[in-house]
Structure formats: C-alpha cells, structure tokens
C-alpha cells in the first residue's frame, strides 16, 4: 500500500507538472493574472486525479484505465515540452526528465495489473475451450 500511495502522489505530480511544462513551452507568461486564471482549473484537475486514485483503491477498472490514459497524456506532454524548451536552463531539463520518469512509472504501475487480469481472463477462456490452463501448466 505504501508503494501505491507514493505512486499516486507521483502520478498526480507528473500529470500537473506536464501541463505546467506544456504551458511554459507554449510561452504562456507566468504573470499574476495568468496564474490567477489557470489556478482554479489546476486545483480541479488535482481533485479529479486524486478521485481517480481513490476509486482505483476499490479496484474499479474504469478508474485504472483513466489513470493509464492520463499517464500516457502526461508522457506525451512532457516529451513535447522537452522538445520545445531548448532555450531554457539545464535545470528545467532535469525537472522534465524526472517528470517523465514519474509519468512512465505511474503508467507501468497502474497498467501491469490490468494486463495481468486480461491474460488471466484469456487463460480461463482457453481452459474452457481446450481443457487445460496454459499458465498453470507451465508452473
């Protein structure tokens, strides 16, 4: 459960930071007025992300698929930002690289149980058709 909690926090941070890096790469000025306009949307976004995390604790499939989809989007936005922010200092590349690692980790962490469940379902279907389970036979 500890790793799940840490991964949930990393997922939320990577999703929010990928949006911020994307806005920065599109030359969105970080002035007081612009931050005041975007802050409510970011807060709602964080609440929605944490809702997906809490729902996935109860093992709702759709919430895990939503987390996987949002992780893929944050990976894409971070790569887009890495490509477009060539004139910024090196520290921004370190932050974006760390954000990319966090997004990939959250994608792998939440996608692996879904893939395992899909394989188990396919093995049960195969067992019903052919009379043996190929996964259990290998063990």
UniProtKB/TrEMBL annotation:
<keyword id="KW-1133">Transmembrane helix</keyword>
<feature type="transmembrane region" description="Helical">
    <location>
        <begin position="91"/>
        <end position="114"/>
    </location>
</feature>
<protein>
    <submittedName>
        <fullName>Uncharacterized protein</fullName>
    </submittedName>
</protein>
<keyword id="KW-0812">Transmembrane</keyword>
<feature type="transmembrane region" description="Helical">
    <location>
        <begin position="67"/>
        <end position="85"/>
    </location>
</feature>
<keyword id="KW-0472">Membrane</keyword>
<feature type="transmembrane region" description="Helical">
    <location>
        <begin position="42"/>
        <end position="60"/>
    </location>
</feature>
């Amino acid at each position: 459960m500890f790793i799940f909690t840490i991964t949930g926090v990393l997922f939320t941070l990577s999703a929010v930071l990928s949006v911020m890096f994307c806005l920065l790469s599109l030359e969105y000025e970080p002035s007081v007025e612009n931050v005041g306009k975007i802050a409510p949307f970011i807060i709602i976004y964080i609440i929605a992300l944490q809702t997906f995390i809490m729902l996935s604790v109860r093992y709702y499939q759709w919430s895990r698929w939503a987390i996987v989809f949002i992780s893929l989007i944050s990976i894409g936005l971070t790569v887009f930002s890495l490509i477009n922010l060539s004139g910024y200092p090196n520290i921004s590349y370190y932050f974006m690289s760390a954000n990319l690692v966090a997004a990939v980790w959250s994608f792998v962490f939440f996608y692996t149980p879904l893939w395992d469940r899909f394989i188990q379902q396919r093995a049960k279907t195969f067992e019903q058709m052919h009379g043996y389970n190929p996964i259990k036979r290998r063990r």
